[in-house]
Amino acid sequence: MISRRKLLKKISALPLLGGVFGGSFLLPEKATASVIPARNLIKELGLRTFINAAGNYTTMTASLMPAEVMETINESSKYYVMLDDVQDAVGEKIASLCRSEAAMVTAGCWSALVLGTAGVLTGKDSKKAALLPFLQGSGMKSEIILQKSHANGYHHALTNTGATLVLIETREQLEESINDQTAMMWFLNREEPQGLIKHSEWLEVAKKHHIPTMNDIAADVPPVENLWKYNEMGYDLVAISGGKALCGPQSAGILMGKKDLIDAARLNAPPRGGNIGRGNKVNKEEILGMYVALETFINRDHSKTWATWEKKVSHIANAVGDIPGIVTETFVPEIANENPTLKISWEKDKFNLTGKLLGEKMRIGTPSIETISWESEDYIRIGVFMLQNGEEKIVAKKLRDTLLKAVI
Ligand SMILES: *Cc1c(COP(=O)(O)O)cnc(C)c1O
Question: Is residue 245 part of a domain?
Answer without folding.
Answer: yes
